Amino acid sequence: LKPCLLKPSGRAELEVVIAVKRHNSKAPSPPSFAMSLTIKLKWVKEEFDVTIEEGSTVEVFKTQVWTLTSVPTERQKYVGFPGGMLKDTDDIMEKAKKLKPGAKVMLIGTAEGNEVKAPTEKVVFEEDLTPEEKAKLLKEKKVEILPAGIKNLGNTCYMNSCLQCLNHLTDLRQALEAYSAPPADSRDIDSVLTSQFRSVTQALRNTTDAIVPMQFVMALRQRFPRFAETQNGGFMQQDADECLRGLLTVLSGTLKGEGGSDGTNRIDELFSFQLKSTLKCLECDEEAPQDSVEAQRVLLCHLGTQTDQVSHIHQGVSLSLKEHIEKQSPVLGRNAQYEKTSALDTLPPYLIVQFARFGYKGANEWAGTSASKVKLTRKCAFSNTFDLFDCASPELKKRLSVGRVKKKEQEDARLERERQAMTADRAAKAAKAGSSSSSAKPEEKKDGDVDMKPAEVADESKDVDMTAGGEEHDTGYYELVAIVSHKGRTADGGHYVGWVKHKSADGKDVKEDQWILFDDETASLTDWKQLVGYTDLQGGKADTQIAYINIYKKVIVKTEGQVVGSSAATGEAKGAEEAKAAAP
After folding, report:
1. Which residues, including other chains, have CB under 8 Å from residue 567's CB and lie 6 or more apart?
2. What is the mean pLDDT of residues 458-474?
3. Is 157 a catalytic residue?
4. Catalytic residue among 23, 157, 284, 473
5. How many helices (H) and strands (E) does the chain have?
6. Residue among 444, 510, 10 nearest 1 (CA)
7. Which alpha helices (H) appear in 438-533, and where do they start and end?
8. Label partner for 478 (CA 20 to 30 A): which of 85, 90, 205, 407?
9. What sign results for the dihedral spanned by CA atoms 158, 162, 163, 164?
10. pTM for this predicted structure
């Protein structure tokens, strides 16, 4: 710069020149540092560190996040930035500066390729399923559901309870499945009723809602006009025992026996038993006793008299097998008193026991009462098992004794195996506890020492094939599987329900026998203790459900067949081979 005389107005010009010269000079300028921040970003279960440079925009930030998460920028939504949701016009650096130390920003958005796709199959909601489809789906998923009920079509509870009990007898249900109706031109009302009964059993297994057996009711009332009686504009209440006996009579003519011959039917094979009776005259010793055999499908249980009451089902059944009758005596030539003593000579697979709770009371002119049916509500105890040994004939008792001995032997063997298993388990636990607590080095064995090991318990139930070469033996024992009960004071009124055994107690998962109560269209679960303890099912009160018909299933014992894979069989076979090889 040349020296010059500066005027007051030329000072600014000089500064401008100097500034320009400095800018254009080649001297290096001082370094400048760009500011950056790192924030924590959380997406689903992953976390990322995202660095934001000074001057960066929201679009650049979203692009960085897209490279890390594959979430497109248009799908990205952020939660955690101060001031609400992040907008494209916001200053991303200012937003990041306002974050608290340790704060995280959450990303919401779906990555590319993980978009929700339209279902390949049409979605069907449970409410849109039919009862049949719902039942099929639950069976496929092995979901346990209660069986379906039956709608009451006008005092048809007597019929509903019988149908539910018969439907849960596996052998009868299989016989109905195998039934084929005759051609239409030769079809009678019995075949129609049987076909409708089969349809009812199929519907009860294939739906979850209560069924409406209208066609079955129409066929039943056509076959038995008594069930179509009306009073005051509605159908009258009927006797469940009459309905049960009528159904068995019809089915005995339509369901053939397992052999397929015309002389047998499936109903008699399942429910019929032989009664051997002896009729003796009490007024003439010279008249010889008369022996006879008759077939029955129902065993009665009398409840005694006012002076000699019955308190247990065993007493009532024994009383029904011994009765006094009056008939013409060929020796005396007049009516005489006879004693008829009966005993069971065969045992059916299913035993039906009817409690004689309904009677007939004649008119009394002095009291001004007319003839009517009455109900006996006195208590008659019963359990979930029934022993008929004392009611059997001498010949049958001999056969039952064999099965009862076999049953006792098997029960003793089972208890012994359980005892040995518990002993071995305790010994193994004690040995394990001793070895873990002992820190000393085990002593070396001396000559003659023998290692002591826990005894191995053989599971005989796995070694024995119960079906190969085995025989079935009757024991005289029965287990209760179904009950028809009645609530009310007369046979012409009240209400019937059905009870069916669902599961047997195993002592582990199921502590008590599980039962299902069918009250028309409603089905509920209960156990044996509640059934006999809280419902007064054994009797004693008129306004509670009292057992009217009990259905029992026979308990049989299978003798052990050929021993498969057991140590005993292996040892015997090995010994036989060695003896054969050593023989000269």
Report:
1. 458, 463
2. 54
3. yes
4. 157
5. 15, 20
6. 10
7. 460-463, 528-533
8. 205
9. positive
10. 0.68
